[in-house]
What does this fold into?
Amino acid sequence: IGAQAMERIHLRWLTACADGRRVQVRSIAAERGILHLAGPRARDLLAAATPDAVDDAALPFFSLREIEIGMVPAQVVRVSFTGELGYEIHCATDHLRALPVHVRGVAEPP
It folds into this structure.
């Protein structure tokens, strides 16, 4: 998983590293999308959006975990580039629009 802005560089490097090995390197940028959730309430919002545990023990910094958000299967990486608590939520692009709708729905009071 890498930043789209670095895709060409990552593909070139990974392809060079794979030379002579029995691996396949390909971009999945068109198949996968990312939603970044960050801020002081990020964990509370994520916890409200999934039945899976997202506390420090279940999802320590710089770890990846597969969870379900709404009915969307996702890979969640606990990272932060903002200085706040943050998560990258990766899922199939077909489901990408549903994620913010679901997270927003659990964030807003009824």
User: Anything to note?
Assistant: The first strand starts at residue 32 and ends at 38. Residues 59 and 78 are 7 Å apart (CA to CA).
